[in-house]
Amino acid sequence: MLALFASLRAGFRSRLAFQLEVLALRHQLAVYQRCPTRPRTRIADRLLWAWLSKTWVGGRHALVFVKPSTVIAWQRRRFRDHWGRLSRGRPGRPRLAKAVQDLIREMSRANSRWGSPRIVAELAKVGIDVAKATVERYMVRSRNLPSPSWMASERWQRQRW
Does pTM surpass 0.85? Predict the structure, then answer.
C-alpha cells in the first residue's frame, strides 16, 4: 500500500524535483559509505545541502542524517562569514602616502632646526593634514650630537681654570 502511494506521488512530481531527491539520497549514501560509524560532513557537503534547501522546496523530507535546522544554521553561518569577509578591511588607520612620507623626510633634512609641530604647520599650509606623531615617525634623525648649550660651555671653561 505504501509503495503504491509513493509511486502515485512520484508520478505527479516534476522531473526536476525527482532528480534533486535522487541527488540528495545518493549524496547521503556517499557520506555514509565514507564514514560508516558517524557521518562527518565536509564543507562541500554543507554547501550542497545549503544549495538544495534553497532550490528544492520539498527537500526537507529527504534529509536523513542532518536536521533541517542544521542546514539552515549552515546557511546563516555561510551568509554571515561571506559578508564578514567582504566588510573586513585592513585594521587601523590607512598608511600615509609615500609622497607625503618623502616630503616629511625632505623637510626635516633641509630644516634641521624644525621640530614636528613646525613641519605639521607647514604641511597644513599646503593642505596636507597629518598628526604630530605621524610626522615624528617619518622625520630624519640627526646623526651628530647637538652642540652643548652656553651653560655647559661656561661650566667647562670654569673647570679648566
Answer: no
